[in-house]
Write a structure and sequence with these properties.
Bound molecules: adenosine monophosphate
Number of helices: 11
CATH superfamily of the largest domain: ATP-grasp fold, B domain
Largest sheet: 9 strands, antiparallel
CATH architecture of the largest domain: 2-Layer Sandwich
Order of helices and strands: EHEEHEHHHEHEEHEEEEEHEEHHEHEE
Structural class: alpha+beta
Helix content: 25-40%
Shape: globular
Number of domains: 3
CATH class of the largest domain: Alpha Beta
Radius of gyration: 20 Å
Number of strands: 17
Strand content: 25-35%
Distance between the termini: 38 Å
Amino acid sequence: MPLAPGSTIGILGGGQLGRMLALAAARLGFDVVVLEREADSPAGRAAAKLIVADYADETALAELASFTGVVTYEFENVPASSVRWLAARGVKVAPGARALAVAQDRFEEKSFLNAHGAPTVAFAPADTPQEAYQAVLNIGVPALMKTRREGYDGKGQRWVERVADAAAAFEALGGVPVIVEAAADFVRELSAIAARGRDGTTAVYPLAENHHEHGVLRRSLAPARVSKVLSDQAERIATRVLAGLDYVGVIGIELFEMADGRLLVNEIAPRVHNTGHWTQDGCEVDQFEQHIRAIAGWPLGPTHAIAQVEMLNLLGDEAEAWAKYAAEPETRIHIYGKRGAKPGRKMGHINRVKSL
Ligand code: AMP
């Protein structure tokens, strides 16, 4: 049975993705309850109700469970055990614990991808300095060493230029389990935002072309100019990943476009994604509404582009230029309501829209 307007949706996490999910859910007539550690958060201020607690706090999880029809999460470092705890008590959680667990561990993630026909760079796990040395020797240099868990926005990773540096790189990353990846000599970074409904229907948005600065997304252009062969390839990858995870909701799939035309998957994010923000002003149903539709058991909405969009992240104090952006007729402004503008922090984004 689809969840009817008037029902309540729970969100684990209080960041900007939660905020935009809450706004989309409210538009469809749902009430949102956010469970978040911070008393003052972007999502908390857009929700009908806020529970301030740790994501693993069972009393808080039980409270969340008591009034929600379905629970989702807005970032991938929510403990998979919390999602399992909710699911074990009969609460519908989407996406499920499997997707979360796979996305939380870079080795599990790449192993899953390869097993489901989604190609990646060559990789090897390492738990000790000796294994790190052997892994770099096998993969070849330059290699990228990444912590298996808890890396984001380019954090928790180091380039290894010489095999002799492998053990030192391992120690510099904290001596925690890592994955060693071959360097992807990509020509472009693209991403596919895709959705799968409760009935297994899938829908994929046009690809976005993404540009990073210091490991953080700066700019997306969408729809990216790509051949039909390339977009078909991305669609095949997305469909396999979604089916392999028995996924419900929106997923972000980061891709490397190689010189020979192949797409490799860099990583998957089991949630709405920064590179999908363009859909807010470039599509009839954006990624946030799409996610709410999927987890509520509604039919998925259309995913074709109705405009060409340039999405720019507003980092640090850049959101203070809101008045300048407000004066541009082609610019749509999305500000997250975060209190402190630390350098590099994602404070908002703008979508510059051109008709197709
Ligand atoms: P990640 O944290 O895995 O999303 O990586 C952050 C960024 O580092 C990516 O967007 C790429 O620009 C770059 N990167 C990640 N993995 C590789 C790789 N194997 N080869 C080359 N560049 C990479």
